[in-house]
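[job 4471] stage=fold_predict status=RUNNING
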Amino acid sequence: MEITLLKVHGSMNTFYLLEGPEIEHYDQLTLQLSQMDSSVDGLLVVLPSEKDHAKMRVFNRDGSEASMCGNGLRCVARYVCERDGLDEAVIETVKASLAVKKEQPLADGNAMYAVEISPVSFELADLPMSYLANSEWLMKPLPFVSEEINFSAVAVPNPHLIGIVPKAYQEDDSHQRKWAETFNGPNEYFSDGVNVSYVTKVETGIFVKTFERGVGFTNACGTAMTASALISCLSGIVPYGEVTVYNPGGMVKCTVEKDGEDFKLALSGNATYLSSHRFEWAEELKDSKFLSAETFDEQEDYERFIDQVAEKAKQFV
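[job 4471] inference complete, writing structure tokens
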């Protein structure tokens, strides 16, 4: 079967995007594409929705399905808005219908979109996480991991474990890798795995490095950056409102607003088109192949934008 794939990225979190019907085996397609192209983090599938402008499904490199993806949602938002001639839309995801909108670019030539991140839960059962008899875990050490790192667990709705760390943990990520791999293998704490982010305060915001469940270390994870901004506001290292979040792939803006006992979260950043591909999708990997490709020039504009923030974004990479 011949299909059309759009290669896209949000903060260098790179995906193939496909518009198609609701069918089985998108997990197998993702596994094939990941083996054929090591630069992608997964597959975004744009589907019809009975209640919203479109529905999004997200598959990680290993074929597992994620509840949400903030960077991927920005790319889907652009695709749907441009397809339907809209500046705002609502996208159905596994756990919620989320508002998205086109924004003014931070730099020439960079399409920018803001997306709602929801729902938010600190209940360990929603990750799920099991540790002693606790129902929440916020801003305190996990003694068996480290006595000096304050960890917080939050679902947005993907599960996240956020650690506030000094610079040394960003310069040497072996500690983060060890525990992220532990928590995403057979373990007694996270039965479904967890995204593990280490966060460090920088002069103009925060720097976040994420080991993403089903992917590994990634240039950026949208829900992780938003969750990290939320925990950073709760811990007092940055004020509520707009938080600048640097990552190995660049920079985004996260908005954290407190509404009584609830939080309103949004993620704003680039939605960049890299290339378009005709692809022959067969049941066997050996029979699947890329037929042709068209490359766009948007990455040049994105790289010029990254040059403007490179010193801040790369200081812990």
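[job 4471] summary: The domain at 124-268 is CATH 3.10.310.10 (Diaminopimelate Epimerase; Chain A, domain 1).
[job 4471] exit 0
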